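To assess whether the prediction recovers the assembly geometry, we first specified each molecular entity separately, as shown.
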Amino acid sequence: MRIIGLTKKYGSTLAVDHLNLDVQEGEILGLLGPNGAGKSSILMMLSTIIKPTEGTAEVGGYDIRKRPYEAREMIGIAFQEAKLLWMNTPWEILNWHAKVCGVKNPRHAVEAILKELNLWDARKKLANELSGGMKKRVEVAKVLIQKPKVAIVDEPTAQIDIAGKYQIWEKIRALRDEGSTIILATNELGEADRLSDRVAILYHGRLRVCDTPRNLKDSIPGGDVIDIRLEAPVENKAVAELKGIAGIVDLAIVEPTHMRIYLNRAEKMLPKIMQLLSTLGVGINSINMKEPSLDDVFFHYAGTVLEESQATPSVASP
Amino acid sequence: MSKILLVIERDLRSLVRHKSILIMRWFFVIVQIGIFGLAVSRLIVVMPNYYNYYAMGVIVMTMYSVAIFTGYEVYDEADDGFVEYLLSLPITRRELVLGRSLAGGLRSFIFMSPIIAGFLFFIGVLDPLKILTALVALYGFAFGVSGLSITLAVGLRSGDRFDIIMGALDAFIVRLSTALYPQAFMPGPIAALSTFNPLSYASDLFRWSLNFNIKYLANPAVALIVLVIFLMTFNFAGVMIYERNLEGGNWR
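The predicted structure of the complete assembly is given in tokenized form:
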């Protein structure tokens, strides 16, 4: 999938601002951003539900503006809010969806997915009798049963309990392993970190950065932190020599026997640090390593933490 | 074609979920024909067999009011966001609109079929050809009304405007038609307006096919042509407006 200058305006509000992005076949791409960052608008343009104001995208080689029907045949979407009519049951909803999407042996497939997602007992209930979590699982089940070339899942585990979240995550990974490319829109950092092969950070409708979670974390200068507690107060000579190691961004003395080192790729740098301290005869009580979270990454690229930006969305959701 | 059939299947299934509405409307039609129709036909002596004329008109009117319901559904789906799901499916917009329009006509037909069957039995029309012609007239009309309602639902893009237009349409389309009284008895301007009303032609074609006194009816060939133009125009308009207004995200 190639996204080329994709832009969406609602009146004077710029929801998506000239987005350029390539999505690799068979990857899970996490779209991370607060509410109003433009995630849903991007997903709806890719699904050909709404037309871009400018730019376009190619899905499986089909331009979403010129060949929307062919593009739609490649795509399946699980919406942020479950799109279920009150008068239909999960069985009817999934059975109809499977038939429309050309799923072979739809009855068998529907039965299987309902059982796998613990919806079998609720299969004859009307949609308005289902809990929020059940509705969400029915919504996600649509994509899982369809197994599209490109699966779009918008906050797939919102309103779902912890056990259900793990189950859905497992299903999304399995869908990727079966050959689907997955675009995962979420504002849950843990979900993006756990599932995504690459993460694209969106803010104010613009793409700030896109890379693997590992590379994003490493891209923060001094993002990794090593806390070293010593047997005796640290000497200036040791501090100077540690600061001389290439890759160490900063070093702070928290307490006389407690050093905090800011660096990148801590797991690779640690042996060098240990060797130097050993040579200098510095005794060590404990070592603690901490790598940056995606929240730190988000802060680095967006200038705010995700939770704060959720509270004050700057671009209206469509 | 198979996608259109799936759209029809979905809409037909939803009909049975509205049991209470169906029962209420059946009750209304039966009371209207069985009580009001009988009483008013005794008052009207200038026109022979007005009771049958009236009952046939009520059947066509009810077909109209059930078929127009498709528009309300389409509007509600756009309003609550369900339309996004429909637009994301591998179905062309044309298949979606035509499927819904055909289903709207069929639903209207299925809803009225027990009453139509009872009425045909009551008036003693058992000729299959006449029955088939009558049913084709009714279905063609209901199909066109569904297309009209979809066109209005997605074209108006405002809840208030939609309700006002539908209310006005509901009030005028019956009064300015030959559904309840023949053109010969209408004041001049109303008679003139009724000639532009598809409900007039549907009612007259239905009556013609059941051998009602031809003196009071429009030319059946003209009626058939008008109905075909009506259903083609509004289904084509529905497809065009659905594509332009919904796919552009303009329903928001």
